[in-house]
Design goal:
The complex is a heterodimer of chains A (299) and B (271). With 299 residues, chain A is an alpha/beta fold. Chain A has a single domain, classed as 3-Layer(aba) Sandwich (Rossmann fold), CATH 3.40.50. In chain A, 48% of the residues lie in helices and 13% in strands. Chain A contains 11 helices and 8 strands. Chain A has a 6-stranded parallel β-sheet, sandwiched between helices. In chain A, strands 3-4 form a two-stranded antiparallel sheet. Chain A starts with a helix and ends in a 7-residue tail after the last helix. Chain B folds into 3 domains: 102 residues, no CATH class; 62 residues, no CATH class; 96 residues, no CATH class. Chain B has 9 helices and no strands. Chain B is extended. The chains are: A alpha/beta (299), B mainly alpha (271). Chains A and B meet through α3, α5, α7, α8 and α9 of A and α3, α6 and α9 of B.
Chain lengths: 299, 271
């Protein structure tokens, strides 16, 4: 910083300095708050909203042998927000012996989706108790308990095609096994043979699920979305196109709370709370600076 | 030694040092342990390189950014080739090519040549202009535009237009209404309560009408029309505010995710 600038800044009032605060201070303070929060033992209550509860209740209401389609349509850049939803729903389904057909229509998604599946397969091998119900550990078998179909290009066409027959675009699964030889897929021709679709998405793939699966084939559809996308999709709840909606890390935490399966989302809530408080404080400080110097600036 | 040489060498030494620190020396499978240590350390370093942009633009950030773009492009191309050409088209076009790519031959279907031909035609755009053949690619573009429009228009009308308007128009102004006496005696401020339902429906209806009025430019926004239009601006501002709030929440979630990776998976300082 030049001497001139230093002299100019020293002549400024406190409120004017607030207005000129270098944004890197904001980043530093936010980083310090977030990091230090990890070491504060604190539990944030996460009351479930109606739109998240309706997804949980729908999955909880499934019977052994029912099948759902879980669409993991996000890239690693949305992993922090959406992966916890995938983990919680997959574990709930595997514990309840509900068959899961998994697609991944985002190009960078299949590797990440496979990682989630394998993690939950390992986790389900251990006995656990959720909401007072004890589940013994069991081996989850690929092709029997789930089928991972992987990625296909042109998601609009794939989603429309699956409404006629899954085999139109997926003659083989992600592991190159013929669909007709996979036990869980034997009685599954199209959306009529599954109970619901849960799309966890960080991109416009979700629009295709609404337009082609829900509107055209009347599929029972629920969405898990990034926080940024949430306000755009609330209207679909009102029109009944979707029956449930989870948004961002908070939505994932609500689901984990309902499923009694605390994970990364509930862990992240305390950090999120303090980060939000910090951001609100900075907004207040900037506003105090703005209104305090308004007269001087002739506004 | 030149600074431009010294910094990369020092960075590589620090990277190797972190890999060695991360290595589980007692692990049974040394190769697996080494790969895991390399992966996690590379992830940690790349995260810090990207975060360094918050201070100011620098060579580390540029390196991470270019690496991301390059790897993404290569990954997309490989996935595109294997999922479209190798697994979908070629098994229906050529037995020898299918076997060469390790794919089972699924029987010859002649019409699979149509998308292949359209794809090849699209590539004529890449030929030198002097050949004057690039214009043929417009046939493929025309096919894409026409088929996409045909597929999208009806679906969009059905899902986004008719259904949304119908659901807004069918909102009851007095839901579950059985008389004023019942309303007062069962007054409830909970989410499922009659008052909140009624209030929500009124907000939606007034919000939609005032928002539409704001975008109606055939009449001057004065008098009562102007006042409704002004209310429409407020509705829009509240909507943008809610969207911004969710965006901040989403971005903080991503920060939480990255920091959890840095401090738990990489540094191992939190449980």
């Amino acid at each position: 910083m030049s001497n001139n600038q230093t002299n100019n800044n020293s002549n400024l009032s406190f409120l004017e300095r607030l207005m000129l605060l270098d944004r890197r201070w904001v980043f530093l303070v936010l980083a310090l708050v977030v990091v230090s929060t990890y070491y504060i033992p604190m539990k944030v209550p996460v009351p479930a909203s109606t739109e998240v509860r309706s997804i949980y209740d729908a999955v909880e209401g499934l019977k052994e042998g029912d099948k759902i389609l879980l669409a993991i349509d996000y890239d690693p850049n949305a992993l922090a927000e959406l992966h916890p939803m995938t983990y919680a729903i997959l574990e709930q389904c595997f514990r309840k012996k509900v068959g899961v057909i998994i697609t991944s229509l985002s190009q960078n998604g299949p590797g990440m989706a496979e990682q989630a599946i394998l993690d939950i397969v390992d986790s389900t091998a251990l006995p656990r108790t959720y909401n007072g119900v004890s589940y013994p550990g069991r081996e989850i078998i690929n092709g029997v308990d789930y089928c991972f179909l992987g990625y296909r290009a042109y998601f609009e066409l794939v989603i429309t095609g699956m409404g006629q027959n899954f085999r139109t675009f997926y003659s083989r699964d992600y592991y190159d096994v013929l669909l007709d030889s996979i036990p869980i897929m034997k009685d599954v021709q199209n959306y009529d043979d599954i109970e619901m679709v849960i799309d966890i998405s960080g991109s416009n793939v979700v629009d295709a699920w609404i337009k082609y699966a829900a509107a055209r084939y009347d599929v029972k559809l629920a969405l898990g979305l990034t926080g940024v996308m949430m306000t755009d999709y609330y209207p679909y709840l009102g029109s009944g196109r979707i029956f449930g909606l989870m948004g961002g890390l908070l939505g994932a935490a609500e689901y984990e709370s309902l499923a009694d399966n605390p994970g990364l989302a509930m862990d992240g809530m305390k950090v999120q709370v303090w980060a939000h408080i910090t951001i609100i404080l900075f907004i207040l400080i900037a506003n105090i600076g703005y209104f305090g110097t308004r007269k001087k600036r002739g506004l | 030694m030149n600074r431009k040489v010294l910094i990369p060498i020092a960075s590589i030494i620090v990277f190797i040092g972190f890999v060695l620190l991360k290595l589980d020396w007692d692990g049974a499978d040394r190769t697996h342990e080494l790969w895991e240590a390399l992966e996690v350390t590379a992830g940690g370093f790349l995260t810090l390189m990207i975060f360094s942009f918050l201070y100011k633009d620098n060579a580390f950030y540029k390196f991470a950014e270019h690496l991301y773009v390059g790897i993404s492009a290569a990954y997309w191309m490989c996935v595109g080739f294997w999922s479209n050409l190798a697994q979908q088209a070629i098994p229906h076009l050529s037995q020898s090519l299918s076997e060469a790519l390790g794919q089972p031959f699924l029987g010859y279907i002649w019409h699979y040549w149509i998308p292949v031909a359209l794809g090849l035609i699209l590539l004529t755009r890449l030929l030198p202009e002097s050949m004057k053949i690039g214009w043929i690619s417009k046939w493929t573009l025309a096919f894409i535009v026409a088929s996409t429009a045909g597929l999208f228009i009806t679906a969009n009308l059905q899902a986004n237009f008719i259904a949304q308007i119908a659901s807004t128009m069918s909102l009851p102004l007095l839901p579950d209404w059985t008389g004023f006496g019942d309303f007062l005696s069962n007054f409830d401020l909970s989410y499922e309560g009659q008052f909140v339902k009624m209030f929500s429906n009124w907000v939606i209806i007034i919000g939609v009408i005032s928002g539409l009025v704001y975008f109606f430019f055939s009449k001057e926004h004065t008098g009562w029309f102007g006042r409704v239009s002004r209310l429409g601006i407020w509705v829009l501002m509240v909507t943008f505010g809610a969207a911004f709030g969710y965006t901040v929440m989403g971005r903080v979630s991503l920060l939480v995710g990255r920091l959890t990776f840095l401090f738990r998976d990489w540094a191992g300082v939190i449980g």
